[in-house]
Design brief:
single chain, alpha/beta, TIM Barrel, 13-stranded mixed β-sheet, 19 helices, globular
Length: 540
């Protein structure tokens, strides 16, 4: 996918070898990180550097000539994200709480507990998308996890040092599992507070099936949604799907579930669809709570060419969104996901209860948030609310002396109300108060609150737009991996970071072989654990 931007220094016309020509005159080193070689997958160091306002990563594998790739198309935003990393991780990785051992061990695992756990319940799919990172198939060797196995995996999440109660069922296409509604009911019965499904939406075209899933406990659909043009779906999914996508959305609008639209964006294919997708989300904002944009990573099955265009990345996403909608400033209105951890930590201190701060690396995900008024007009939150000041102010929130008297809602905690000066009343949309703004955080923390009767009067409708850029061989960074908060559950109840499962060591392959063979490994003796143990960590 990004071959056009990979430079092998031994092939330069200058004829200068790697050991002689290490950098261009304009190159400015930003960082050196532990990584994996894009060619052989062995541990190596990579240099991250600025060249003429863009960020590249160069592998320094001792076995091969250097290879470099463009990983971020705006150095200023990249450095801004680094500032957030220093704020969220003031002592580096030492601030992370070591989780219970995962199947990857220390080398390829995360030092974070998961904010969201992912369970693949099948590898069967009724699509054969040319860009599937899971390489799911419509034919061949398949598995459907037994209900008892899934229940044991769910129980393992509750037995973590900090129980994880948010789970996403994935695949393959998870709704093809004949026991999917039973799995939902089992998860609800175990006390999981947020149930998601990553889906192509094909089964949700049927309103009765959508209603069945709602009744079984499903809260949110992460719906594959690549654009508002059938030409896009022909290229990326191999078939015309727009009518079916819209039909699935209409089915969900007959329930009390919510939707997050999930477009995979590829250069020269569907970058121009970012604005139209947002417009569609706006028209359905009572049910569409957000857009989770995923720049295509060079993993799995990539059969769509980009004509040598610059790889799409989070900086390109932020620029494209502003250019196409006119609603955001670059880079001022974009914040990393981990900035929200300052709010989570404040809630922990006030309530004296353990939460799951989104302590991901700042380079994993960035986003922005919109208030939507009664006329469906969007207002970027940071255009009238000093979000930077608000989040930084969270770090100063102190524990409350009488923990037992604090009510659940954030909007009723006095210390948060003291930050009302972050709201610029001259720019605030009509009818929006700081109290209503805080109530939106109630819905963020408690998904049931945002679905309750009368919510539109107490809080407000909002849409987040975020990008999550998963790593591939060209951008692999073990520091990011150690901070992963989205983790897969294996059949033996252990955890694998998203980017270990799908890229790097590609632990998905060995796990799927185990499932296809019908073998449920015991303890930590799985094949992928042994594989990970062969990859020693190098110091950053």
């Amino acid at each position: 996918m990004v071959e056009g931007f990979r430079v092998n220094f031994t092939k330069l016309e200058l004829g200068i070898g790697r050991r002689t020509l290490k950098t261009f005159v304009s190159d400015i080193t930003i960082d050196t990180v532990a990584s994996l070689c894009p060619r052989c997958g062995k541990p190596s160091l990579s240099t991250i550097f600025d060249r003429e306002g863009k960020v590249y990563q160069r592998s320094e594998c001792p076995c091969h000539d250097a290879i470099e790739d463009l990983i971020f198309s705006d150095t200023a935003l990249y450095r801004r994200l680094e500032e957030w990393n220093r704020l969220v991780f003031p002592e580096g990785d030492a601030v992370l709480t070591q989780s219970a051992p995962g199947c990857c061990g220390t080398e390829m695992g995360s030092q974070n507990e998961p904010c969201l756990a992912v369970i693949d319940i099948t590898n069967h799919c009724n699509f054969k998308c040319p860009i599937c990172f899971a390489e799911a198939k419509a034919e061949g060797s398949h598995y459907f996890l037994e209900l008892e196995v899934v229940v044991n995996m769910l129980k393992a999440l509750l037995n973590r040092p900090v129980p994880c109660r948010s789970v996403q069922f994935s695949g393959g296409e998870p709704t093809l599992h004949p026991d999917f509604p039973k799995i939902l009911r089992a998860a609800r019965g175990l006390g999981f507070t947020h149930l998601q499904v990553a889906t192509n939406g094909s089964r949700f075209v049927d309103p009765d099936y959508a209603k069945l899933c709602e009744e079984s406990g499903l809260h949110t659909l992460y719906l594959q949604f690549d654009g508002m043009s059938d030409e896009v779906y022909l290229k990326m999914r191999g078939q015309r799907l727009l009518d079916k996508k819209i039909a699935a959305v209409r089915s969900i609008e007959q329930t009390n579930m919510r939707l997050v639209l999930v477009p995979t964006i590829m250069s020269s294919v569907n970058v121009d669809q970012v604005g139209p997708i947002f417009q569609f989300a706006l028209e359905h904002n009572k049910f569409v709570t957000g857009i989770s944009i995923q720049p295509a990573a060079d993993v799995g099955r990539i059969a769509v060419t980009t004509g040598g265009a610059e790889p799409f990345n989070l900086a390109a996403m932020a620029r494209a969104f502003g250019d196409q909608t006119g609603l955001t400033r670059f880079p001022d209105d974009w914040f990393p996901l981990n900035s929200i951890s300052l709010l989570s930590r404040a809630i922990e201190r006030v309530r004296n209860e353990k939460m799951h701060p989104p302590l991901s690396d700042a380079h994993c995900s960035i986003g922005t948030f919109f208030y939507v008024d009664d006329n469906n007009k969007p207002f970027c939150l940071s255009s009238f609310f000093d979000l930077d000041r608000f989040l930084r102010g969270m770090a100063k929130i102190k524990p409350h002396a009488e923990q037992g008297l604090i009510e659940r809602q954030i909007s009723k905690v006095r210390q948060f109300g003291q930050l009302s000066q972050c709201l610029d009343l001259r720019k605030t949309p009509p009818g929006l108060t700081f109290q209503r703004l805080l109530r939106s955080l109630d819905a963020w923390e408690d998904k049931h609150e945002g679905r309750s009767e009368g919510w539109a009067q107490r809080g407000f409708n909002g849409i987040f737009v975020a990008g999550m850029h998963f790593m591939d061989a060209h951008s692999y960074n073990l520091r990011r991996l150690r901070r992963c908060i989205i983790q897969y559950v294996t059949t033996d109840g252990q955890l694998v970071p998203f980017c270990s499962y799908n890229a790097g060591a590609r632990l998905r392959d060995s796990e799927e072989l185990t499932r296809i063979a019908g073998e449920v490994p015991q303890g930590g003796n799985s094949d992928h654990a042994a594989m990970a143990g062969e990859l020693p960590m190098q110091a950053d």
